[in-house]
Design goal:
The complex is a heterodimer of chains A (181) and B (259).
Chain A: H1 3-14, H2 18-40, H3 43-60, H4 71-95, H5 99-117, H6 121-128, H7 132-142, H8 148-155, H9 159-179
Chain B: H1 12-16, H2 22-33, H3 36-55, H4 64-72, H5 84-91, H6 103-126, H7 134-151, E1 157-162, E2 168-174, E3 179-185, E4 194-202, E5 205-211, E6 219-226, E7 233-240, E8 253-256
Antiparallel strand pairs in B: 1-2, 2-3, 3-6, 4-5, 4-7, 7-8
Helix pairs in contact in B: 4-6
The chains are: A mainly alpha (181), B alpha+beta (259).
Chain lengths: 181, 259
């Protein structure tokens, strides 16, 4: 569906239209569930977070501003933020025991699942056009739910470098995705 | 050694990836409030992260959308412009504003609400037109009253279980009333002449406990089963439309009610 349509439906959702909300859910649920699951990993928690996200879309639809970005970006921003909140809360609990090893394991898992799930050819191709450090910084943060300081620790690269690679990486990704549209 | 303070402006990428936390985040958001160029850049970078989200898309579990839509029916929405209270609440750390004093009770209230939403949704979908006579209305009211009693019972416990090959069942159970309320979502449609039958199975034998109503939007409305006994399980089978006196077919779902 063109994103403008999704935005129009969101406008109707903001006015309490439940039928429009059903359409919005039907069209965003797979993306929301997918991104939440890549970050949270546990499928049951992912289901729970996904429901929270969609309900937040219902609750906060009036806050969507069409001029400030696409409807899909608005929804995925909510989804990713919620997923990251959840996974960080979980990590704080688990961290006390295994601070050193936890990151190594998590990193291996992230690299593998991300590669397995990036089934959209264009995104995968564009990710390949980034430098290795850009790609790792972006995917560890986005799919792994790590902060830039944590990514710096994981990769053994200075924080300042990671932070600029994230920005450069996203800009290049945006240009690559936008160009072939 | 304290970590070095990052330059706020260069954090836009990390922020778009939700990779900024703690004081870094507070500082960047403060910067964002006075930097329209950053807001524009952030919006553009988020179009890229949205594509990363799209690349991870995966089929959500069956019934998820229906459950959300049903819950939305009872969830109030925010007004367009945030008022001061809303802005203040938004700044509190996650969960602070809403953390319930008694989590179990709050959780139960939320679940009861979700079930109530399902009831409403199903009633709306079926048009509730079957209830034409005084007598039937009376029976339905009694049933709804019993259901409400279980959902709001002080000892109510909620359990969920997955069915084979797909679908979920949600049970709210009260030992005080020796009753449970069952709803399902995403069970496979059955061929004509068949229904899902509910069973209580335990040391005191297997007892049929009613038939599930027809599904609307993948969900079945609440069914109440009474006469719970210690050691009972709840089961679901596929039965002839009139129901079966004995649990002949293999259950598609079994849930231990011991808590």
């Amino acid at each position: 569906m063109p994103d403008a349509d999704l935005g129009a439906y969101l406008g109707e959702v903001a006015r309490g239209d439940q039928a429009a909300f059903e359409v919005v859910c039907a069209r965003t649920a797979a993306t929301v569930f997918g991104v939440v699951r890549s970050v949270v990993r546990d499928p049951f928690q992912a289901e729970e977070v996904c429901q929270e996200v969609l309900l937040e879309v219902w609750r906060c639809a009036s806050r969507f501003r069409p001029g400030r970005g696409s409807a899909m970006a608005w929804v995925t921003t909510i989804a990713h933020r919620r997923a990251v909140d959840r996974v960080r809360a979980e990590r704080r609990l688990a961290e006390r025991e295994q601070r050193a090893t936890a990151h190594t394991i998590a990193y291996d898992e992230v690299a593998e699942t991300v590669q397995a799930r990036l089934d959209r050819e264009r995104v995968r191709r564009c990710l390949r056009s980034l430098t290795e450090l850009q790609r790792e910084s972006v995917t560890l943060a986005y799919y792994g739910g790590y902060t830039f300081r944590e990514v710096s620790g994981l990769l053994g690269v200075a924080e300042g470098t990671v932070k600029t690679r994230m920005r450069d990486g996203l800009i290049r990704l945006r240009d690559c995705l936008g160009a072939g549209r | 050694m304290r970590p070095r303070r990052p330059e706020p402006h260069t954090l836009a990428g990390a922020y778009a990836l939700d990779a900024v936390a703690g004081t870094d985040k507070v500082r960047f958001e403060r910067h964002l409030a006075s930097c329209p160029a950053c807001v524009r850049e952030l919006a553009e970078l988020r179009e890229a992260t949205a594509r990363l989200a799209g690349a991870a898309a995966a089929e959500p579990p069956g019934g998820l959308v229906q459950r959300v839509v049903a819950s939305a029916a009872l969830t109030p929405q925010l007004p367009p412009v945030p008022g001061p209270a809303e802005r203040w609440r938004a700044r509190l750390p996650m969960g602070t504003a809403r953390r319930p004093a008694r989590p179990r009770r709050a959780l139960r209230a939320r679940l009861a609400l979700a079930l109530a939403a399902m009831l409403l949704a199903v009633a709306a979908a079926s048009g509730a037109i079957a209830l034409t006579t005084e007598h039937r209305l009376g029976a339905a009211e009694r049933r709804d009253h019993q259901i409400a009693q279980v959902l709001t019972a002080p000892d109510a416990v909620m359990l969920t279980a997955r069915a084979r090959p797909q679908g979920t069942a949600t049970v709210v159970m009260s030992h005080r009333y020796r009753s449970l309320v069952l709803t399902t979502a995403g069970l496979p449609p059955l061929p004509a002449g068949h229904r899902y039958q509910v069973w209580l199975m335990g040391p005191s034998g297997d007892r049929p406990a009613g038939l599930l109503p027809a599904a609307h939007g993948g969900m079945t409305g609440p069914v109440i089963a009474t006469g719970l006994a210690a050691g009972d399980w709840i089961g679901l089978t596929v039965a002839p439309a009139a129901g079966s006196p004995r649990s002949a077919s293999a259950p598609i779902l079994m849930l231990n009610l011991a808590t």
